């Protein structure tokens, strides 16, 4: 039991460190670890992960608020629309949580997207746009927030893997502002989704707290490593790791 506690905390620590270093959510590390190494039932792995992210997103958002990397007006719009989307997504999850093959398939394609994005960003460095705002209309931002919220409610993955590239590629946001605003926006989505998963009884609360505590500490370590470790190399490596994860989820679906 002690080994499990320590390993879950270390999983969160690693996830938080990579998240702080690469600007991705710790979910992409925590969820497959719970599913494949700890052998959690997939619905419980999803519920436990998204509940842990409440701590992760809150800590990260506070850090970026201090660094002035948050576009408040965008965060408000995305947080509200994302919370509504998470509500819809959580209702969908309630009805399909016993369809493990379908969850495997959705997660598989979600991780396929993550892997392609990370390898691409490792090879082609993202140009930094000037400014401290996320450009674009409120309607575009609300639409992005809603659909990311729906996916969050269904598969329990943090919004960083979808919100950050949406802000950068679709709205031409500066990278740092995209990361900070994403974290601030995602707190509401994780709270709504996590609350539904808790009500549904698919959350290991102890594991969520351990994972969340690990990510909070790891995120600070990752932030300090950004000046020492070439993120492009790590993105390529983990891009291929997530490619393996996506294939594993998809193969399980069939």
Primary descriptors:
254 residues; 0% strand
Describe the structure.
The protein is mostly helical and 254 residues long. The chain has one domain. It is 81% helix and 0% strand. It contains ten helices and no strands. It has helices spanning 2-22, 27-37, 42-66, 72-96, 100-123, 138-155, 160-170, 175-200, 205-225, 231-253. The longest helix is centred in the last third of the chain and has 26 residues, at 175-200. The protein is globular, with a radius of gyration of 17 Å. The model has no long low-confidence stretch (mean pLDDT 87).
Q: How many distinct folded domains?
A: 1
**Ranges with pLDDT <50 over ≥5 residues?**
none
Shape: globular
Structural class: mainly alpha
- Largest sheet, if any? none
Q: Percentage of helical residues?
A: over 70%
Q: Quick check: average pLDDT? A: 87
